Amino acid sequence: MARWIIVSNRLPFSLDARTNKLKQSSGGLVTAINGIKTKNPIHWVGSIAANIKKDQIEQYQKSSPYSFSYPKISESLYDSYYNNFCNDVLWPMLHYEKEIIQYQSEYFDDYKKVNRLFADHIAKIAKKGDIIWVNDFHLFLLPKYLKEKRKDLKVGFFLHVPFPSSEVYRELPCRSEILESLLYADLIGFHDFAYLRHFSSSVYNILGYDASLLDIITPHKKVRLGVFPVSIDTQDFIKKSKTKSTLNKIKDFNFPKEMKTILGVDRLDYTKGIPLKLQAFKKFLEDNPKYQGKVQLIQIAVPSRTEVPEYIKLRHEVERLVSEINGKYSKINYTPVKYIFNSVSVAELMALYKSSDLLFVASKRDGMNLVCLEYIVTQDEKNPGVVLLSEFAGAAQTLSHALFINPMDIVGTSHKIKVGLEMNVHERLERHNVMKDYLKHYTASIWAESFINQLTSREKSDINKKINLSIETEQAKLKKKVKNKTLLFLDFDGTLAPIQNNPSAVKLDAKTKKLLQKMTQNPKCEIVLVTGRDRKFISQAMQGIPCYLACEHGASFFDYQKKKWRNLTASKRKPWVKDALEIMGLYQKRVPQSFVEKKQYALCWHYRRSPESFAKLQARHLYSDLIDGMKNYPVTVSSGKKIVEVKSLEANKGYFCEWFLERYAKDHVETFAIGDDKTDEDMFKVLNKRAHTIKVGSNTDSYADYYLEDQADVFGLLNKLFS
Asked: What would the CATH number be for the domain defined by 471-569+651-722?
C-alpha cells in the first residue's frame, strides 16, 4: 500500500528538558495528521535538533502511529539555512517586511544544500506509488530536486504562511529559481485565495507562464493550484475548555464581573502587530473615558528568537508602550494592560479564552492564525465573546462573522473595540453560532484529507465553444423569425428571475409575470419552462401562467393542458445519493454558510451566501471530485450560478428538449431557448442548428448562438420579440 510521506523542516517532536524524553510538538499540521482516518501508512521526514539522539527517536517511534526518518545535516549548515535564509530572508519577504531582509548569496547556497539533502534522503526511502506532501517555505526548492531524482513520485506542496503580491516577491534576488522549483509539484496549496492569486500573478509576471487560478502551464507539466484553509481539532479544544483544571484556573483568575477583558495571544514577532494593538487600545481609553478602570487588555507575548536584534527591538517597543499606557491610566486597583512575556499552560489558555469578552488579533500579516479558531470553539454557548480580527490574517477568509479591522487604522480599530465590547448578546450569539458550526464540521483532519484527496485525484475539465453573436445587433433579424408558431424554452433562475443569496426568496417581478401571461394568451407562442427547481417551488412561482413546466432539469414534467405531472426518469436514485452526499458534505463543512439542497432526482450544493472567491474555487474542486466519484453511476454533474449539482442521468435539459420536440412541437416553425448557466448548455447543445439559442451573460464560453449582457435584459428581449 502506498505511503503518505509528510515532509517538514523539523520532525513533529522535541526534547523535554525536564524528562529528557521526546514529546509531540504542538501545531496545526501535527494535529491534522494525527486525526486522519486512513489505512495508508504515514512516514514523516524532517530534520532533528542536535541534542536529540537516535535511540530516543527509536523509543518514541514505538508509541507513534507513524514512522520517522531524517536527512543528516550538520549543525552549522542547518543554522545558516534556517536562521540566515528562512528566518532573515523568506519570513520577512513573505510577510511584507522587506526593509529587514538580509539577503546574501551564500545563505541561499546553504538553503539549496539543505533542500538537496532532503531530496536525496526522500528519493532513497520512497517507494513507487508513495505520495509526498512537502510543507512550508523552508523547502521551496524540494519539488524540483525530488522530481529530478524520482519522476514517478506524486508531490504536493502546501504553504502555511502568506504569499505576497508579485510586486513584493519580485524584489527577491532568487525569485525565479524558487518559483521554477515549486512548479515541479503536482499540487500547490494555500490557506487563502489571495495567496494563490499573488502566487499565480508572480509566476505569470516573472516566468511568463500561462497562469490561471486553477492551474499553471509550464514547459514540463501542468501544476494544479488549490485553497485549503487549515483548521483545528475542534472537539479536542471543546473538551479542554471544560476540564476541571480549566475551570479551577477560571476560579483562580477571579476576574471582577464588572471588568471587561480583552485578550491577545501572540508570538512576539513583528508580523503580529502587537505595537499596533497597544496603540489602538490606548486610543480607545483616550476616546472612551467611561471605560477607564473598567476594561483590561491581557496580552500574552510568547518569546521568539530572543537573541535576534529585530526581535529585541520589538520587545523594547512593546514594553515601552505597555509602560506608557499603564503609567497614564493605572489606578490603585486597576492596571489597564497586563503584559506576560512568557508562554502559558493549556489550562491557563483555555481559562483565558473562556473568561475574555473579546479576542484581539491585530496581525499585520498572518498565514492563518489558529488562536481565533480556538477562542471561538471554547466560548460559553449562551454568552460568547467577540473576535476582533485583522483582515490580513488568513482566518478572515473563513470566519465570516468576526468583527474585522485594519490594524494600521488606529482610530478605526479603537472604534471596533468599542463596538465589540458593547455588542448585545443576540448579535454575539448569531455571529458565534455561524462560526462555531463551521468549525465543528470543518476540522484540521478534514483539511489534511482534502489536500491529500486533491493531490491523488485525477484532473477533469470541461470545454465549451466560443460565443458567436451579440443579441444587441441581431434583434431586428430575430423579430422577423417569430412566425406563425413559435416555441420558447425558458430557464428560471438567472434568466426570468435574478439570482438571490437566499434561493427560496427568488420570484418573478410583476412586470415579467404580466408579460408571460400576455405571451401565453397568444396561440402562436408556446412557453416551456425548463428549470432545476423542484415542482413545488416552480408551481407556486408560475401560478397563473399557462405553460409547460419541466422541473429538476426535465426529470419531472407538467402538461398544463392535461393538468398532469409525469416522471421522466427511469434510473434509480438510491445507489448514488449516499456517495454524492458524502462528497458534498465535506465541502459544506469546508465552506461557511454553504448548504446541500435535496431534490427528488438531484442534489444541489449552494454557496450563494459564502465568502465569494474562496467558495468559487472550492466549487471547481467539488465539481472535479464529483466527476471522478460519480463516474460509475447513472448521473451527470454540472456547475451553475453559485451551485454544483448531481442529478439523475435523465435529469438533463438537453434530453428533455429532445423528448419534448418529438412529442409536442411537430408543428412549430421557430424555436427559441434562453438560459444563463452550464445546465442550460445541455439545452443549447441539443438545439444547435434547430433553434435560436441565447445565453444570459457574455463573459463565459457557450454553445449558444447569441448572448445578452445581463439578466435584466431578458425582459426587454421577450417584450420586443413576443409581445
From this structure: 3.40.50.1000
